[in-house]
Design goal:
The complex is a heterodimer.
Chain A: H1 8-12, H2 14-48, H3 51-66, H4 69-82, H5 89-115, H6 118-126, H7 131-146, H8 148-161, H9 173-184, H10 187-216
Helix pairs in contact in A: 2-3, 2-5, 2-8, 2-9, 2-10, 3-5, 4-5, 5-7, 5-8, 6-7, 8-10, 9-10
Chain B: E1 2-11, E2 14-24, E3 29-34, H1 40-47, E4 55-60, E5 63-64, H2 72-76, E6 79-82, H3 94-104, H4 110-123, H5 139-151, E7 157-161, H6 169-184, E8 188-192, H7 196-202, E9 205-210, E10 213-218, H8 220-225, H9 230-239
Parallel strand pairs in B: 3-8, 3-9, 6-7, 7-8
Antiparallel strand pairs in B: 1-2, 1-4, 4-5, 9-10
Helix pairs in contact in B: 3-4, 3-5, 4-5, 5-6
Classes of the chains: A mainly alpha, B alpha/beta.
The structure holds adenosine-5'-triphosphate (ATP) and magnesium ion.
Chain lengths: 219, 240
């Protein structure tokens, strides 16, 4: 054990690391919002869309769930690049994570919709509500509760997955860490600190989710 | 008035209603009895358009229910329905359950809708459960909540589909009592029921359904005392 720990350079860069952590949180959150909207549309398409739409949605879900996330990012980075479509590193990660989130969430939403009994729909329609009103007021609120925990997990997963951004040149938390680490050779110290920051971010996400659940679901 | 003329209903190959002719006048209470699978629930769903029909016509106050040009959501406001499964909306309190449709379907203001909801909940004896979620209510209370929710739309007709069948025996009474109260207030009601006591005491007429056909219809004294049809007599002998 000749290795001497040097934490000072890490602490000096802590503000930069925290800022990169915020970028990580931002891209994860945006990719969740996009993922939820698209995931809902995919789930509804799979359940009651016309056939071409159903096939499209199923393909999306299958690819997102059964191929490595890294490859999904590479596809939106270098794959599209081969067709002359060049996304910025930020967009590669945002689009890639949104793609992945949408696929996973679509499957959760589908299970959620199936768990709401048909009789809820009948009851709402018998009161004169339109199909749209029924979905927005009765069905989706119940689905959201059912998928709330899987959704929280997916958000945690998105935070962690975003670290792959460093492989497509995105200077989020991991990318930033690698950059500093390679400058100073304090590789262990930097990544230890970064792991701690990830841990704190995840704990914050879980805590906020728990508080929000308490407000949202009183029943 | 509800007029049903030559109504046929199929589920794919399955012929579930085989030419039903039936009129229900304003203020009348009709009980529908019959064995499982005879098409009683389906009849109610055909009346408020929750199921399509393949032949014939259902007319409510002069409006043909299954006509394409009919505004079905408007029509349903006039046809309250209570189902066998208690399907209160679990994410809403009693008040919100009842106030929702007046607000978003009828366009009432929030305070107006809440006032209507409170009035209807008190009417069915749930005045002390206004802010409870359905999970905190018994089956009987949930079923009364469902009745209040339907009444809040101020319908002229109420359709009951075995409103008490899924309840524990000791909870049946309170729901039947509420239905009885509505009947006394002059509500027009079609009640699919297995409660022969209710059918006998409360209805003006009783209809017996057998394998998709309305075998017999008449005043309760006649159906229960002197049924013409062999099937009716057999059915009644078995349920008693
Ligand atoms: N959505 C549906 N799809 C296919 N068949 C159906 C559907 N709904 C009902 N049926 C069938 O139609 C027939 C009549 O059903 P219905 O529910 O109207 O009977 P019911 O008289 O209400 O019986 P119960 O007393 O059991 O409620 C049954 O054979 C039933 O299996
Ligand atoms: Mg039935």
């Amino acid at each position: 054990m000749d290795y001497n720990f040097h934490w000072r350079p890490v602490f000096k860069k802590l503000p930069d690391l925290l800022e990169a952590g915020l970028l990580t949180l931002e891209v994860a959150m945006l990719s969740m919002i996009i993922g939820i909207v698209i995931g809902l549309l995919l789930a509804i398409s799979r359940m009651s869309g016309p056939k071409p739409l159903r096939i499209f949605a199923t393909t999306w879900v299958e690819l997102a769930r059964n191929t490595p996330v890294l490859f999904q990012l590479f596809f939106f980075g270098f794959g599209l690049g081969a067709f002359g479509l060049h996304l910025s590193p930020y967009l590669i990660v945002l689009v890639g994570l949104s793609f992945n989130n949408a696929g996973y969430l679509a499957e959760n939403f589908r299970g959620g919709f199936q768990a709401v009994p048909d009789t809820q729909l009948r009851a709402a329609r018998s009161l004169g509500m339109t199909a749209t009103q029924t979905y927005i007021r009765i069905i989706i609120p119940q689905v959201l509760r059912i998928v709330y925990h899987p959704m929280t997990n997916q958000m945690v997963w998105a935070v962690l997955m975003s670290s792959l951004g460093m492989l497509v040149g995105f200077r989020e938390l991991s990318g930033e860490t690698q950059f500093f680490a390679s400058q100073t050779y304090r590789i262990f110290e930097y990544f230890a600190m970064t792991a701690l920051i990830y841990y704190v971010i995840v704990k914050i996400v879980l805590g906020v989710s728990k508080l929000a659940a308490r407000r949202l679901f009183r029943y | 008035m509800i007029e049903i003329k030559g109504l046929h209903k199929y589920f794919g190959e399955l012929h579930v209603l085989k030419g039903i002719d039936l009129n229900v006048a304003k203020g009348e209470v009709l009980s529908v009895i019959g064995s499982s699978g005879s098409g009683k629930s389906t009849l109610l769903y055909c009346i408020n358009g929750l199921e399509s029909i393949q032949q014939g016509e259902v007319i409510v106050d002069g409006v043909s229910v299954h006509e394409k040009s009919t505004d079905i959501n408007k029509l349903r406001q006039n046809l309250g329905m209570v189902f066998q499964q208690w399907n209160s909306f679990p994410h809403l309190t009693s008040l919100e359950n009842v106030a929702l449709a007046p607000r978003i379907v009828k366009g009432k203001s929030k305070s107006e809708a809440l006032a209507i909801a409170e009035k209807q909940l008190r009417h069915v004896g749930l005045g002390d459960k206004l802010t409870n979620y359905p999970s905190a209510l018994s089956g009987g209370q949930q079923q009364r909540l469902a009745i209040a929710r339907a009444l809040a739309m101020e319908p002229e007709y109420m359709l009951f589909d075995e409103a008490t069948s899924a309840l524990d025996p000791e909870l049946v009474g309170e729901v039947l009592e509420t239905m009885r109260m509505l009947a006394e207030e002059g509500m027009t009601m079609i009640c699919v029921t297995h409660e022969m006591g209710f059918a006998r005491d409360v209805s003006d007429r009783v209809a017996y359904f057998h394998q998709g056909i309305m075998e017999e219809i008449g005043p309760p004294e006649q159906i229960f005392g002197d049924a013409h049809s062999e099937h009716t007599r057999k059915f009644l002998a078995n349920v008693r």
